[in-house]
Design a protein that fits this description.
This protein is an all-beta fold. It has no helices and eleven strands. A hairpin with a 4-residue loop joins strand 7 and strand 8.
Length: 116
């Protein structure tokens, strides 16, 4: 199974970006899938995730600005990021979990840079 993330880039503060992550290969039932980010010198942290039933969770810093969604038929998870701030600058990684896997799967990361 591979997770391919895309959609990162350089934007000005206040603008929007949409990240996508597509799972390919032999894909068992994916339970929770989501986005994490890691800024320079900081730990990787959860941004948002969504369960197979559609329940979502968000880091407090992105609530009201970011929206996570998933398309189970297409094995895709998206992250709509609005009103971006310089502190959102980080490498964003998608992560998927399945009861068929011993460990979660991670995508390769996509860089988001927000200028002030």
């Amino acid at each position: 199974v591979q997770l391919q993330a895309s959609g990162g880039g350089l934007v000005q503060a206040g603008r929007s970006l949409r990240l996508s992550c597509v799972a390919s290969g032999r894909i068992p039932s994916i339970t929770t899938i989501g986005w994490y980010r890691q800024a320079p010198g900081r730990r990787r942290e959860l941004v948002a995730d969504i369960t197979s039933g559609g329940s979502t969770s968000y880091d407090d810093s992105v609530k009201g600005r970011f929206t996570i969604s998933r398309d189970n038929a297409k094995n895709t998870v998206n992250l709509q990021m609005n009103d971006l701030k310089p502190e959102d600058t980080a490498i964003y990684y998608c992560k998927a979990e399945s009861p068929s896997w011993y460990d979660p799967k991670w995508g390769q990361g996509t860089l988001v840079t927000v200028s002030s």
